[in-house]
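Bumping with the actual sequence this time:
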Amino acid sequence: QVLLVESGGGLVQTGGSLRLACVSSGKDLETYAMGWFRRGSGRGYEFVAGAAWHGGGGNYYADSVNGRFTYSRDNSKRSVFLQMNNLRIEDTAVYFCAATKTIATLRGASAEFLGQGTPVAVSS
């Protein structure tokens, strides 16, 4: 069993920054690809950022966040992070931590394990 717990969401003005964190417990996810999805109002899950467990290929980002968001992982803390800078109104969504076997699956916004989500609201 796996539990993913996100934190760090909140309300911020456009141009502001937030840092999301996700801690896992239960099954060891060291050999899983991990990353972040988001789901805006009335929308499905969207892949935001992530990487394969071995880091090969580097980090992957959605075009809409590339250059503004930074994904990172600390296996010693069983944690992944998402640094979000220069936030825009269109970044408003619930952000989910995700884990699955392959980065290809993750980039398709599909995951074996998903957290409960942390809301991010960006205001003008």
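The tokens above came from a reply further down the thread. The mean pLDDT is 96.
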